[in-house]
Structure prediction request, 404 residues.
Amino acid sequence: MSADIEQLSKALERIKPSPTLAMTQRVAELKAKGVDVIGLSAGEPDFDTPDFVKEAAIAAIRAGKTKYTNVDGTPELKDAIIAKFKRDNDLAYTRSQITVNVGGKHTLFNALVATCNKGDEVIIPAPYWVSYPDIVAFTGATPVIVKANANQLYRMLPEQLEKAITPKTRWLLLNSPSNPSGAAYEEEELAALGEVLRRHPHVMILTDDMYEHVWYAPTPFKTIAQVCPDLYDRTLTMNGCSKAYAMTGWRIGYAGGPEWLIKAMAMLQSQSTSNPCSISQAAATAALTGPQDFLEERNEAFEKRRDMVVAMLNDAPGLHCPTPEGAFYVYPDASELMGKTTPDGKVIKSDDDLIDYFLDSVQVAAVAGSAFGLSPAFRISYATSESVLKEACTRIQRACAALK
Prediction:
């Protein structure tokens, strides 16, 4: 081992690079070589940031709003977030209960680093977003993975939550609609989870609502503090501008929660990033307070793509693809393809093997279920054009049919 490696921190040794970003980089390298590869690995809307949001950012630059701001958000943005939570979720917060961060990942990092110690446990339903267990591990706490399979539509059951809770449990991380599966908890399901949590008052709840506005279910979106008001003081309700407003590069995440926690997160942020970009905050203020009608139009486009992708993947031999209620991902179960052999004689032993086979044989890039804690499966993002998705699914059908 080299001297440079020996000097790395123990905390850094507990985490690994993002598998989704690694696949996106791999696709970029193949495209640079002229390979006709279809990349379906990136979790990013293909729509552009709305023009009125861009104009707000330009106006902020021209007005000289280029200085430091309050560490965890401008008063204007905090007020916009307060109004959003009231309008969309019927949740009431004050400025001292709101944090603004450099993307949703930063919100998660601040909350967990500020509250977790070695020996603590954090419950994470799987399939999960790739960063959850790594951030938990970075803090020294232990991720406790609860597997929610395709036959339960990738939703954790109350009895699974009950079994996972111990005296060491610090947090439950709940993501709805989910990345990677698109699964969403409806009101009665959240209420059932709330019943379990009431019996364990030491457990905090961090609900990741980043895909709130990418929603197809006939019933309205609900978040757990809304469904279970008595859990309000134990819940950090996280959201952001990346997905709904196609502002991934602007890096604005935010959350509402108990004042003691928000204060602790601000202290941590004051010694790390300091304030989020002032221009991005002005843009986010416009996004949250401006017209929201375009969200429905974009949802209709996403839903149409979803229906086509689910149908085509379910027509592929050996795949079972549940229909997601939100987000812009599908998560097909590939159990029936394990043990099959490719035309060149390789045995598919894992979803990693399957993803490599898709990329090598038909030039379609997805992300293996191993990255999300539930195998054998894979994630496809349908945040791209219908024509590209149709071609990609046709290629996957061909690849599956060639397995023996």
Observations:
- The first strand starts at residue 38 and ends at 39.
- The radius of gyration is 21 Å.
- The domain at 3-48+294-401 is CATH 3.90.1150.10 (Aspartate Aminotransferase, domain 1).
- The chain has a mean pLDDT of 95.
